[in-house]
């Protein structure tokens, strides 16, 4: 059997056997009753996860639509902007990491964008952001909940409260948050959000889900968007036939069904707590290695539960290749830094089928990679710290 690559990067993730089995199921027609039933099951499961992820464990009264795209999340982000804007629209993009920047790049293709950028990994001053949102009278505001590039969550509730005081729509990248972080979709006034199957849903890449509030559905304008990502078309086909308008990635739906079923069988709260515990374990490992976490959360920003970004030691930053080469040689993948953070940080995910055994194997591999860079780390202290947190 092919050796499993140990994926410690924040997506795509190690797949549970039930998901691998789902990927090899016989093909069915995307226009069959069997597919419509599959669609309903996946849609119901994804909705259950989205509406049951609040901090207090109570269900959110969110009553929007869940749609699927045959693509990774960037198409969902694209659709989340293109369906609600035209060339005269004004968008505010909040940026404190790579994916906040991506939203701005997307919006820049369709309309006029004001970029509100602070140093990556820093927390927004919510009063200043609020003033910008209220004064700017934007048609749409984009923000990222879990900024995967920095390992930090942003204050979506406070930003959403400000957007709700305007006529604008609030579009949120929930790609590495939904299914792994606490989220309050209705209470935070989120109009559109996007999640990828390959992150905290623990399935395989190639399909993403979009969550549309009723307010956003009322604003859809079919004339102003491009053909494939026309959300009107998606809603019509979904509500009339439980199908996608174009050929569905059937095997990926089966995989997502298996991923979602694992979560709902286990209970959403238990699933989320697992991510929180694994993040605490990586944070403890960083402390035991004598390393700093990259992000600087303040206020209601926090370290992410789905990804931990750790600063590399100074000597490794000077020459990072041997560190990443050593991991690759051991068939272990960790996330590197994006853009100007390349060679400065490494990122460890907590998503997918990541159990204590895989985390321990990962710690040993990272220890060896540091040794390859002649950095002396207390490997057993990191192991002990992780073990004691995972045992709680
Ligand atoms: C927060 C966030 N947004 C968007 C994306 C985009 O996903 P993709 O490049 O797979 O389309 C990612 C992928 O890692 C992400 O982490």
Structure notes:
- The structure is a single chain.
- By secondary structure, this protein is an alpha/beta fold.
- The chain folds into two domains: 6-10 and 267-390, Aspartate Aminotransferase, domain 1; 26-266, 3-Layer(aba) Sandwich (Aspartate Aminotransferase, domain 2), CATH 3.40.640.10.
- The chain is built from 14 helices and 14 strands.
- It has helices spanning 17-23, 33-51, 73-82, 98-110, 126-136, 156-164, 214-219, 231-241, 250-266, 268-289, 314-318, 321-329, 356-372, 379-390; strands at residues 6-7, 65-69, 90-95, 112-117, 140-144, 146-147, 152-153, 169-173, 192-196, 208-212, 302-303, 307-311, 332-333, 345-349.
- Strands 2-10-9-8-5-3-4 form a seven-stranded mixed beta sheet, with helices on both faces.
- Strand 3 (90-95), helix 4 (98-110) and strand 4 (112-117) form a beta-alpha-beta unit.
- The longest helix is centred in the last third of the chain and has 22 residues, at 268-289.
- The radius of gyration is 21 Å and the shape is globular.
- The chain starts with 5 loop residues before the first strand and ends with a helix.
